[in-house]
Design a protein that fits this description.
D-Maltodextrin-Binding Protein, domain 2, 6-stranded mixed beta sheet, Bacterial extracellular solute-binding proteins, family 3
């Protein structure tokens, strides 16, 4: 084999390796999503006309790495959930990754981990030392479709009172129309404030139900290569130290 033949062979071999990378790179750059989240502080909320939040800031750091436009729509959860199921090139966050939801989406994360605990009225006589003790209270206020609700139902609790939102749950708790509300520690203070009640009237019960991990969920048409690219970007954010800065900032705000 002469030098020219060797050169052509070398070029051909390089193309075999480089071309797929170029195709992937072009696909990755051109891939654009409709990105949606809900108004659920501290993960996503509007302040002074600007979309902010713990998860929002982390996702924006990921945007910068994958070169995605910095566009996020704030929508009701049910609508965003259905769109991500039924339409192509959709993203929704922050979503808990449950067994029921697992086959419905593709996943990147976790974005953040939260500890779910019970909260009670400060003047309540309810004294629980374990999860089983909570079975004896008159009513636990839970929101339909939330992971906390699914968890307690799976544990066989039959004293659950369904509400339409965590805000409604805390409003009822403030009026002592229920004994306990389960919610993540990051989210509880915001829910109390939105309920219009004095946060000093609510206290945390020192019993952890479970840790909840929140993810970015993608519509099923998303390629595995794209999922891997976003996962690598999120991992890079976590390794860079920016992730810890964001978590600490919201912890300092009282979340």
């Amino acid at each position: 084999m002469n030098i020219l033949d060797k050169s052509l062979l070398t070029s051909a071999i390089r193309c075999l390796f480089v071309l797929p990378l170029l195709i992937f790179s072009q696909h990755a750059v051109s891939q654009r999503f409709t990105v949606m989240t809900e108004d659920f502080a501290p993960f996503g909320y509007v302040e002074n006309g600007e979309l902010r939040g713990l998860s929002v800031e982390i996702v924006r750091e990921v945007f910068a790495i994958v070169e995605h436009p910095n566009d996020i729509e704030l929508l009701p959860w049910a609508r965003a959930f259905k769109e991500t199921q039924r339409k192509k090139r959709r993203i929704i966050f922050s979503m808990s990754r449950t067994k029921e939801r697992e086959p419905l989406f593709k996943w990147v994360g976790p974005l953040v981990e939260d500890r779910v605990r019970f909260f009670r009225h400060k003047d309540s006589n309810v004294d629980i030392q374990s999860l089983d003790d909570a079975r004896a209270v008159n009513s636990i206020l839970v929101t339909r479709g939330f992971p906390e609700t699914d968890f307690l139902q799976a544990q066989g609790f039959n004293n659950l009172y369904m509400t339409n939102s965590p805000i409604q749950s805390f409003a009822m708790l403030a009026m002592e129309r229920g004994e306990l509300v389960p919610i993540g520690e990051f989210a509880y203070q915001s829910m109390i404030l939105k309920s219009g009640i004095n946060p000093d009237t609510i206290e945390k019960v020192d019993i952890k139900l479970f840790n909840i991990e929140l993810y970015i969920a993608f519509s099923k048409d998303t390629s595995n290569e794209e999922i891997a690219r976003w996962q690598a970007a999120l991992d890079q954010v976590k390794a860079s130290g920016k992730y810890g800065e964001i978590i600490r900032r919201y912890s300092d705000l009282g979340y």
